[in-house]
Every structure is written in C-alpha cells, then in structure tokens.
Design brief:
about 325 residues, eight-stranded mixed beta sheet, globular, Ribosomal Protein S5, domain 2, alpha+beta, 2 domains, about 40% helix, 11 helices, Alpha-Beta Plaits
Length: about 325
C-alpha cells in the first residue's frame, strides 16, 4: 500500500495573475502558503480474485472492470494516461471540504499523480510533479484553473511564485521567517462560510473581465504581492495582514460573481465583531474566509463566531509527500 498526503493552500496576494490567459501576456506573481490540512490518497494492488479490476473510493465507491467505466473524471483520465493494466484500488480522504477555495481539486490531482508515480516506481521531483499536474488539469481536463495551486501543493511552504511570460515559473520559499510565520498564524483565522461553489462558472466570467475590462485591478493585485514581499523580508506581520482586506476589495470588484450579499453580510458581521478585515479564498462565491484578528480582539471574535466553523491550522513546508509504503 502507498499513502501520499498533499497540503491545501492559503493564497494571500496576487490571485488572478496566475491564469495563463493573463500571465502569458503580462506576467504575474502570487504569495501563498500551504497548511497542515491534507488530501490523503492511498493505492494498492487489487488481488485478481475480485470480480472488478478497479475500485475507487471517495464520496462514492466505484467498482469496474475497465478504466473507461470509472465515473470519477480525474481518476479515469489519469489512469488512462498511465495505461495501467493491473488491478488497482484508490482511496481518497480530505481534511477540508471540496469546492471551498483551498485548492482542493489541484491537491487531489497532485496527490494522485504523486501516488501513481510511486506505484509505478517512477522518481518524480517537486518541479516535475507541479508541471505534470498543471499540464493534466489545464490541457487534458481543460479546466479553467490558475497555475498557483498545483505548484504550491507540490512544493509546500510559504512562497512567492512568479509567473513568466514564457510560461515558466520561479519560486522562493519564505519558511525561514519563523517569527513572522508565528505572528500571522496567531492572527489569521480560517472561517468556513458553509457555501460551496462551482469555481468554473466564476472563473469563466473572471477571465473574460480581466482581459477586457479589468487590467488595472490585476496590476494593482500584483503590486500588492510586490509590497507583501518587502513586509516578509522586514518581518512586518501587521502591515502584511492589513493589506489582505485591500487586496480582497480590488479582487471582488472584477466581477459580481466573486462575492454576493450573503458573503458580504458574513464579512461585515465578522469585521463588526473583532476582525480587522480579510478575504475570501480561491475564485470566490463561497468556501473559506481568511480574517485578520489582532490579539486584543481574539477572545471577542471567537465568541461571536462560535456558530461558525473556525479551522485551526499551522503552516507547513513539506508539500506533497509519501507517508506510508508497504
């Protein structure tokens, strides 16, 4: 049996500039970090005495003789790509819900590709894993997704990811800023809105608007990422956190589908009860808010948010990794 675990991510600044439609013309940059919440993928040889050749367990359990009979699109297309002929069982578990802005779909793809490469005795570097995941999600599945999640989930860590016009990327890890990470970890809270969304519909509108109408907003979002790097180097956690709300206000102005009245009301309630500000993670439309709460307001904020799911987390630096092999 092989078990891999792949982290979810929090994106702080630069969201929107990581779509190929944008950065292949203009360049882009993201500041993000992975956290200690994971997607777990396990695989094992399926003995021949079963009546099926493939068993896939997620929210459903599928058993089929042929790869083409697998209903889970990602699993089916990856197994087709690798042309697996012997019996295989795949099991998925996640610490966080899907469709919640935490990069879950990319984490699943990164984790499954990592697991299958180990299963096939293929050595794979973090860079190659990120590139394969990008290619699979964007070219094979033809999903409208950015390029930050696959890289973040494969590499792990607190990073700036720069996207170049030639299609390549540069990554710099900021994990060594331990006091900085500790401070922002203590004052940034993940709160679940209990709203799931179809990111593809939101992204379709987002991409159209960023190319036609919203260039100034995206350049401003990239500018925030540049400023954030300076705060990282200066260990200025308060200034870093204060910019998150400003960046969110710019992003949600790109298209009306990124936020809605219910989410705006949720945000305003949080701010009126101790949060300095925050942002909705991912493409928008639902999922998790990331709120900045000063230490002096922490007690009141948590009391007022007790009806909501506040997720404790720590930053992590391992990326997609093998945790069990037998």
């Amino acid at each position: 049996m092989i078990i891999t675990r792949t982290p979810y991510r929090i994106s702080f600044f630069g969201g929107g500039s990581d779509y190929p439609d944008w950065y292949l013309k203009n360049g882009g940059e993201i500041i993000s970090s992975t956290i200690d919440k994971f997607v777990y993928i396990s695989s094992r040889d399926l003995p021949k005495f079963f009546s099926h050749n493939y068993r896939v367990s997620y929210s459903l359990v599928e058993e089929t003789k042929n790869i083409s009979g697998i209903k889970h699109k990602v699993v089916r297309e990856i197994l087709k790509k690798y042309k697996l002929k012997k019996g295989l069982e795949i099991h998925y578990d996640g610490d966080l819900p899907s469709k919640s802005g935490m990069g879950s779909s990319s984490a699943f793809i990164v984790g499954l590709l990592h697991n299958l490469n180990i299963f096939l005795n293929n050595k794979i570097s973090k860079k190659k894993l990120a590139l394969k995941s990008l290619y699979f999600e964007q070219k094979i599945l033809k999903e409208l997704v950015g390029s930050q999640d696959q890289i973040a989930c494969a590499y792990g860590g607190f990073n700036s990811i720069q996207f170049l016009k030639n299609g390549s990327f540069k990554i710099k890890n900021y994990n060594y800023k331990k006091n900085f990470l500790k401070n922002i970890n203590n004052e940034l809270y993940l709160v679940y809105t209990e709203q799931q969304r179809n990111s593809q519909k939101i992204v379709k509108n987002f991409i159209y608007d960023l190319n036609i109408k919203k260039e100034k907003q995206i350049y401003k979002i990239i500018e925030y990422a540049e400023i954030a790097k300076k705060y990282l180097l200066n260990n200025s956690h308060q200034e870093f956190c204060e910019m998150i709300a400003d960046s969110w206000n710019i992003k949600k102005s790109i298209h009306k589908s990124i936020s809605n009245k219910k989410l705006d009301d949720f945000y305003n309630y949080s701010v009126s009860n101790g949060a300095e500000g925050g942002k909705l993670l991912g493409a928008g439309g639902g999922g998790f808010f990331l709120f900045y709460v000063k230490e002096t307001n922490k007690k009141n904020f948590l009391k007022k948010m007790k009806k909501n799911l506040v997720i404790p987390y720590k930053f992590e630096n391992s990326g997609s990794s093998l945790v069990y092999l037998s």
